[in-house]
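Tokens in:
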């Protein structure tokens, strides 16, 4: 690792003045005192908490650049130890056109130079000015317009509260729609189960009805056959046993009456 040739202002600490319910900006000046072009890149240990513009580039000989380091809003806890750090990594740019992505990817680690800075959070006293943007007004054209971002811990403005209520209402309507769809799907599922049960019962009932019909047909056929057999046992034109019995009884009575009359 080579010695850093860029000049940094400040050299070792980036100070951020609270309160921290809005974007707080600290500036870092990079100067190239050499006669060669220098590639630079700014890194941080907490990339989600900071926005850096520009975060990389090329410094021409004897020129400087102002880097804006923007701390995003958060809920400040004075008891929490701040461990955020920044590193400015540099190397001499090759001759000709430079593709920074390729240059950094193919760079020899021995040719890299770096400087580290730690972040310091300062909460003002009650009598101190509360405007966090005063620090950037003295930089003239280098001042940057920073879009304000709001986290959950920041105080909510009426407009933001209204947007949140609209979002909650939208989520509630979406939840109701999903519940209605679930109820509809459950009803369809119940109907499908009933239809399946009804079809199974119809399939099971059909063989039983066919069996009963077959048995009934067999019984009718058997009765007809029995009648035909009984009819065949009596000779055609013959007298049935009942008629013969009545005739015999009548002849007996007539015989008794004739006997009494003669004797």
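Residues out:
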């Amino acid at each position: 690792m080579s010695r850093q040739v860029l000049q940094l202002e400040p050299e070792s600490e980036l100070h951020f003045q609270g309160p921290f319910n809005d974007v707080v900006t600290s500036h870092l000046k990079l100067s190239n005192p050499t006669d060669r072009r220098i590639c630079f890149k700014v890194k941080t240990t907490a990339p989600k908490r900071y926005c850096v513009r520009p975060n990389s580039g090329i410094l021409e000989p004897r020129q400087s650049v102002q880097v804006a380091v923007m701390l995003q809003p958060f809920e400040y806890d004075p008891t929490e130890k701040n461990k955020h750090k920044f590193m400015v990594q540099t190397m001499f740019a090759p001759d000709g056109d430079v593709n920074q992505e390729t240059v950094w990817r193919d760079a020899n680690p021995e040719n890299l130079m770096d400087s580290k800075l730690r972040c310091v959070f300062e909460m003002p006293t009650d009598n101190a000015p509360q405007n966090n943007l005063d620090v950037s007004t003295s930089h003239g054209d280098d001042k940057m317009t920073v879009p304000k971002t709001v986290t959950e811990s920041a105080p909510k403005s009426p407009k933001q509260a209204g947007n949140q209520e609209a979002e909650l209402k939208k989520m509630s309507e979406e939840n109701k729609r999903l519940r209605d769809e679930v109820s509809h799907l459950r009803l369809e599922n119940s109907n499908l189960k009933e239809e399946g049960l009804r079809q199974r019962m119809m399939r099971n009932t059909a063989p039983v009805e066919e069996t009963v019909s077959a048995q009934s047909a067999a019984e009718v056929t058997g009765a007809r056959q029995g009648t035909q057999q009984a009819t065949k046992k009596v000779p055609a034109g013959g007298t049935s046993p009942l008629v013969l019995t009545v005739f015999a009884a009548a002849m007996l009575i007539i015989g008794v009456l004739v006997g009494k009359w003669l004797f």
